[in-house]
Write a structure and sequence with these properties.
The structure holds two protein chains of two kinds. By secondary structure, chain A is of the alpha+beta class. Chain A has helices at about 55-65, 165-180, 220-240, 285-290, 300-310, 315-320, 325-335, 340-355, 370-380, 385-400, 400-410, 415-430, 430-440, 445-460, 465-480; strands at about 5-15, 75, 75-80, 90-95, 105-110, 115-125, 130-135, 140-145, 150-155, 190-200, 210-215, 245-250, 255-260, 270-275, 280. Chain B is flat, with a radius of gyration of 24 Å. The interface between A and B is large, with 54 and 39 residues.
Chain lengths: ~475, ~90
Amino acid sequence: MAWETVIGLEIHVQLATKSKLFSGASIAFGAEPNTQACAIDLAMPGTLPVPNKKAFEYAVMFGIAANAEIGKRSVFERKNYFYPDLPKGYQTTQLAEPIVGAGYFDIQLDDGESKRIRIHHAHLEEDAGKSLHEDFHGMSGIDLNRAGTPLIEVVTEPDMRSAEEAVAFAKQLHQIVTALEICDGEMAQGSMRFDVNISVRKPGDPLGTRTETKNLNSFKFMEEAIELEVERQIREIESGNKIVQETRLYNGETRKARSMRSKEDSNDYRYFPCPDLLPIELDDEFIDQARARMPELPEAKKTRFINEYGLSEYDASIITTDAKTANYYESVVQLCKLPKPAANWIIGDLAAQLNKQELSIGESQISPEQLAGLLVRIDDGTISSKGAKTVFEALWSDGGTADEIIERKGLKQVSDTSALEAIADEIIANNPKQVDNFRAASADKQPKMLGFFVGQAMKATQGKADPKVLNQILLSKLTGQ
Amino acid sequence: MDRAEIENIAKLAKLHIEDDQIDEAIAGMSNILELVEQLSSADTKNVIPMAHPLDALQRLRADEISENNVRDEFQAIAPETENGLFLVPKVID
């Protein structure tokens, strides 16, 4: 019988507040080392933490999105361990009474099926600083800018059965926290980090011994690390060994994992309620205000885009992947009232250009106004699809409006019927043989043969004839209808 | 309490214990545990765990940046620094 993989995730989501969880120091990314570490972050004697209200608001918004019970009363505890990038000697976190209780998310799998992943709970905690181990003449360098940054740690039940499901869940979570704007979603900067608990068993058996692979910061690494660990566990068990409960580290560059520490070596964290912080109670008003601030979530947005704009499931899911793309799309549609072409251009040419330049949609060189202007001119037949590509490129590199570019580059199609009729007459007169063949051919062959005449007319107008109008004129003249 | 448990606790606590001290440690630790175990004879079924001795609630602060860069002051009292980093004896977990 085949092995079954069992996966549970712990996800650290960095909250997009301005200041830290317990101090008024900035959390902006990329500052000079230790320039955003104040007395509280450095655990100077005599300091007292004061929690950030915004962090609670964001955690409550997450809880509502996760269909979870909100912990109206929550308590901070100290998780004690020794490490130099944790100056207090403990991390302030929550354990027995977290801010977000049990909940769930329904994820969409590639085969179109939906699966419910249960959330065990989510709690508020502070991040640690950063240790740099290279090149300080045998010492380690400590940067405490990140110390005290607010996080929510989301803990799932072991409900995922493959790397694919785990990645689908992780991507959906990323989508939701960025749509809520409670996290900037910048994975490369560590704004979301995944710990993966993995075990294998024969279907129906109790859970096997699990290992935890820590600190994965990309979907790709997560997928690779899971596949590697599942293979390793099956290989160990099949060759008669036991899985040891341990923490492992995956190196995305070498694609190898190693054991970091086994359970026997693990700390007893000696949790206890933090005497520096009183219990926090949130009233209904606070929770209602957080609920009122909730934007439309990606799933709801997708359904609305399908119903309101007639988009396909596929197009709607791509456009609603992140809130910025969805907003861009809606701005374009509002201006030009062309929902389908807008989707095609955003998913097609615009996405290709952004990828090529490694830009996000927020950095697009073409504004929704400019794109809408282009779409209107395609729709009313002013320019051909080929001309549209030229306009798009010019908008990207030179700016301006579609109309200015059409004018400047002479891209206007000839759709003036009398001019095109004159050209059609001339072509028909000059090609009697082709005309005879066309008229003798059966109706199902004629459309293909029409191509010859369209080609001639296009040549005569240097490609500027409106193909729709031209087709009609030629067809009616040739068939005499 | 047995030998292995004492050895493991010593390791986690980063304490060195001589072999001939282990029996004494077993006896001492067992005594402490027995004392603490007496607590579990109390009926706590209807007792809400106390998170804080004060009967008060935490106040929250607005999300505003109120702390400036004070790196120079703090690094002036640090044993060793380099390029803005605090230097500490190397520890790799």
